[in-house]
User: Which sequence fits this backbone?
């Protein structure tokens, strides 16, 4: 069937609410408004205000309430409008959701799912455009998911709800309108492995989430130049699928990591370090990185574009890595 | 401040009053022991004792049912004990032993116990309030008549999470009882130096929450107020708020040189020691003999001695278990 990323996500929420009476959606504007990004459009009418629960603009309050409700036996899906706003709830995410299991010596699970948008590309300026999933991937106790395809948008939520631990799902804002075919019987997918989106022999392009389309475009362009790029979609930023990353590098001997976060202290820095630590002797070139420019994301379209990992920059980085013959 | 008064006995029957006296003494003795063990370097980290405030935990806790939930702060040894966590498990936790209520991963500031629905042990000021709101939300959505009680100090009133939580609880009419332990100092910052409005019950009332204050040095008064509130919450009356005016006799923590308040002030409050107050009132009313008091003291000493023995005999968590409980041992299907 034809669908969009947004519709796939909505179908996943509907399915979860129908399957399990403990599941409910909570967040700013998820109800009467239909969701700031229209993900939950129509669900309020379908399920009512108890299970599609509008909250005040109070991220610490409703994220903490989600944690408490999870402790109390519910299976909340909390929507935070953008990752930028999640900073208002960082205390609850880091000091409670991620730590309660450990601090309590294994007594208290927090089976909570938090969804939020991330990323730039829509001229929304610095306070709505950042990619901070790498920060949260720094925190032990959280699982970080980055669905980039229709299958993952449809399938990750239900699996995440089965996880006894807190799961954060990052939906890149530019993906919502991506349309394509999704199998009628598409269902839950695993939330622990990376996926090869395009097999290749010459270089591994490692990415996740919103930059996957640009990386796939880059791979197509590189193929025209005789460079056979493998595209690895991480899917999960914590815990990272080391085996998939190292396996790909062992095959291609070159790697470029594409990450919309800033380069300094980013998930791409972590990947580069892991590849260097574990696959140094497989490498024929230094690990390359394409990240966002180290500026708060600007509003003006040409400046925003210049700050982001574009197909051209990915192609250039791949050419450089392949050119550095070992 | 009022002096000690016969009000201590109220209408409670004498057995119950003696029970409350015993509960307060259990907290006091356990914590005096903690201070000693801290000085002996058996306990490390931050240690915040509740000495002087026992009437609050004793009065509120005695009104709860076994399946109610309790959320507390980092000054929570007394809450844990009176909620039913064994003294031995509390002390072993502070020793960092596997026999502790959190296997030594929590320590003094992070006591948790699933069996008694004791949810901490939260060391971020006001961080526990949203959790309490969520626990109450789960009960309401599931149609259960349980109550969640959330303890916090008056310092929490300045935090955004306090306001967000009260608003949500009132908006959704959740079964939660907020208990503000107003001991007048947020670490070393006096209430009047941190709040534009120092009447905390009044502030809570601004959220359309039934709010009142009680003398936190008088366990009978605390219990009366708490019972009224818990009954109302359980009956579907929405959130309630209690401001319990109390005082801590000791420093904020073992590291606090206490330069922010003078000794005369502390002495004045110590004249209202909640344990002495109740004991004196019961004696005056002929409801507590010297023998009764001695027997209570002996029982409590026996319990605390046994707890120390239990903690001393504990074992450290094996190092190979360091990374357990970061993620659950059951993975998603």
Assistant:
């Amino acid at each position: 069937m034809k669908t969009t990323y947004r519709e796939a996500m909505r179908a996943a929420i509907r399915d979860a609410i129908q399957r399990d009476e403990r599941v409910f959606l909570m967040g700013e504007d998820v109800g009467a408004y239909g969701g700031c990004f229209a993900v939950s459009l129509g669900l309020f009418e379908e399920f009512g205000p108890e299970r599609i629960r509008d909250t005040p603009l109070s991220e610490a309050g409703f994220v903490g309430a989600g944690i408490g409700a999870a402790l109390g036996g519910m299976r909340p899906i909390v929507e935070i409008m953008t990752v930028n706003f999640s900073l208002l709830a960082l205390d609850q995410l880091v000091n409670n959701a991620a730590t309660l299991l450990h601090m309590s010596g294994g007594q208290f699970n927090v089976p909570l799912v938090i969804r939020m948008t991330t990323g730039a590309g829509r001229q929304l300026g610095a306070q709505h455009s950042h990619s901070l999933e790498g920060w949260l991937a720094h925190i032990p106790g959280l699982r970080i998911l980055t669905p980039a395809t229709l299958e993952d948008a449809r399938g990750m939520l239900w699996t995440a709800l089965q996880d006894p631990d807190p799961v954060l799902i990052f939906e890149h804002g530019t993906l919502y309108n991506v349309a394509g075919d999704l199998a009628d019987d598409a269902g839950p997918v695993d939330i622990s492995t990376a996926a090869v989106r395009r097999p290749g022999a010459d270089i591994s392009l490692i990415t996740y989430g919103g930059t996957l389309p640009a990386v796939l475009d880059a791979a197509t362009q590189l193929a025209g130049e005789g460079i056979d790029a493998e595209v690895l979609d991480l899917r999960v930023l914590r815990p990272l699928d080391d085996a998939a990353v190292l396996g790909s590098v062992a095959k291609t001997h070159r790697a470029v990591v594409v990450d919309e976060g800033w380069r300094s202290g980013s998930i791409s820095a972590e990947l580069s370090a892991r590849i260097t630590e574990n696959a140094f002797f497989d490498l024929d070139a230094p690990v390359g990185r394409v990240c966002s420019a180290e500026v708060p994301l600007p509003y003006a379209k040409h400046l925003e574009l210049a700050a982001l990992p574009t197909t051209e920059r990915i192609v250039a980085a791949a050419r450089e890595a392949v050119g550095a013959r070992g | 401040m009022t002096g000690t008064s016969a009000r201590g006995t109220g209408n409670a029957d004498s057995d119950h009053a003696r029970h409350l006296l015993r509960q307060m003494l259990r907290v006091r003795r356990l914590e005096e022991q903690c201070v000693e063990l801290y000085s002996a370097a058996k306990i490390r980290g931050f240690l915040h004792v509740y000495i002087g405030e026992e009437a609050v935990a004793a009065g509120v806790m005695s009104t709860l049912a076994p399946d109610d939930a309790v959320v507390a702060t980092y000054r929570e040894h007394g809450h844990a004990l009176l909620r039913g966590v064994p003294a031995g498990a509390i002390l072993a936790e502070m020793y960092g032993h596997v026999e502790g209520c959190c296997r030594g991963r929590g320590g003094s500031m992070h006591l948790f116990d699933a069996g008694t629905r004791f949810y901490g042990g939260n060391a971020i000021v006001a961080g526990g309030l949203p959790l309490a709101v969520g626990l109450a939300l789960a009960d309401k959505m599931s149609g259960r008549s349980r109550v969640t009680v959330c303890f916090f100090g008056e310092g929490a009133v300045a935090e955004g999470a306090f306001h967000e939580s009260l608003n949500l609880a009132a908006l959704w009419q959740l079964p939660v009882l907020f208990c503000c332990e107003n001991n007048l100092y947020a670490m070393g910052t006096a209430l009047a130096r941190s709040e534009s409005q120092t009447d905390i019950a009044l502030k809570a009332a601004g959220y359309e929450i039934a709010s009142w204050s009680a003398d936190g040095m008088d366990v009978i008064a605390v219990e009366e107020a708490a019972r009224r509130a818990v009954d109302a919450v359980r009956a579907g009356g929405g959130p309630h708020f209690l401001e319990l005016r109390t005082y801590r006799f000791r420093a904020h923590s073992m590291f606090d040189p206490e330069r922010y308040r003078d000794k005369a002030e502390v002495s004045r409050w110590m004249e209202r020691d909640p344990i002495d107050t109740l004991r004196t009132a019961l004696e005056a009313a002929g409801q507590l003999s010297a023998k009764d008091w001695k027997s209570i003291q002996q029982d409590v000493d026996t319990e605390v001695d046994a707890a120390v023995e239990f903690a001393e005999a504990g074992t450290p968590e094996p190092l190979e278990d360091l990374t357990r409980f970061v993620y659950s041992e059951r993975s998603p299907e």
